[in-house]
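Researcher: We're reviewing a set of sequences before deciding which ones to prioritize for further study. For each one, I'd like a predicted 3D structure that I can look through quickly. This is LacI family transcriptional regulator. If possible, include the structure in token form so it fits the rest of the review sheet.
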Amino acid sequence: MGTSQRPTIKTVAARAGVGRTTVSRVLNGSPLVSDAAKAAVQAAISELNYVPSSVARSLVTSRTQSVALVIPESESRLGSEPYFSAVIRGVSTGLSDTPFQLLLILVRDQRELDQLRDFLAARRVDGVLLVSVHRDDPLPALLEEFGLPAVLAGRRSAAESLSHVHSDNAGGAAEAVRHLLRRGRRTIATITGPLDMDVGHSRRQGWRDALREGGADASEALAEPADFTEEGGRRAMRALLERRPGLDAVFAASDVMAAGALAELRRHGRRVPEDVAVVGFDDSIVARHTDPPLTSVRQPVEEIGSTMASILLEEMDEADEADRPGGGRRQVLLPTSLVVRESS
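Model: Here's the predicted structure for LacI family transcriptional regulator, in token form for your review sheet.
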């Protein structure tokens, strides 16, 4: 090669005839690489005696070899919402063949936010995964300010500047509502997630789009926001029944809220699905254990976690390279599908 410089991802990519991202994925054990590309990269690594920067840097600096998964929620939410445990499993899987330890950090109040700010400023982790993002959440801006590699589950808005992974929330909601319309339902209400979260806003948008497309009522009186909790689902269902007692279907933006809606419908003497059909979102374990079992939009939550980990590993590797590209953000949209059970 005629150079004494340490080879970088760039030189490995050039030798293997692939892009830098492909090299990163091979180094991080990502499944998103063909066997041929993997073989070419491994051959180039061997020929160039390339040492991945994560290994080289940890020998000469105080690299922490740890990644933080930050969840700005209470322990009760963490325990009652299957979404979080599925994301954690996915992230763990994504990091399992790497030297990185996973730190779980809950941020429940201003004191814990201040502690996290100090923790990140001191570079106590090499990268951050952030779950449950609200529009005015100070954490994403903090991560950008510190220049830490970071990946979000979800996004603040369609203009999100940080790398993120999310499901097709609007498409999944629209598919749920089209299913209800095909079943002959005409007055279809929705229990939304918090509307300061893109996930809440997008699922409501999918509900509205499908109703308009089907020529059905999409008025605001049929939409009630809640907070992704079972009690929130009960309260929202109660409000909807008061406003629109003749409703014949409900799309709830999470299975946990749908479970609350089912309990409230039973309390009001409404049979499911005979009087009111119900569809949830997540296809979590909750959907299989409600009475009746719940039709739900399946989103690949574990894959969200493992994809976040894979992207973060790439970003951390690039951060180690002197020739890091400017602001190479990655956005991954994962598909959803409808699982039909007895509730609809």
